[in-house]
Amino acid sequence: MPEEVLFKTEELHSRLEIAETLVDAAEQIKAGTVQLESTDQSETVTVPEEPTFEVELERLTDSETGEQRYELEYELHWTE
């Protein structure tokens, strides 16, 4: 099944700003409707009562520099 990206944003933020965004997202998820907004795009989605919740922490190492990068992802998914 081909993937269709409906919304994506990636920007540097402070830990505090990220935490505040996640708290807001949690409240929206609890209410059942999530509004995603950036300066140039907006998307609203209804979250079902029991979506699958995935948490993933990855460590990636650059093969040339040896630098390590971490990715922490929180993901909800469901089928309509």
Automatic annotation (TrEMBL):
Pfam families, sorted: Amphi-Trp
Domain Amphi-Trp, first and last residues per copy: 1-80
The name this protein goes by in its record: Amphi-Trp domain-containing protein
Organism: Haloarchaeobius iranensis
Taxonomic path: Archaea, Methanobacteriati, Methanobacteriota, Stenosarchaea group, Halobacteria
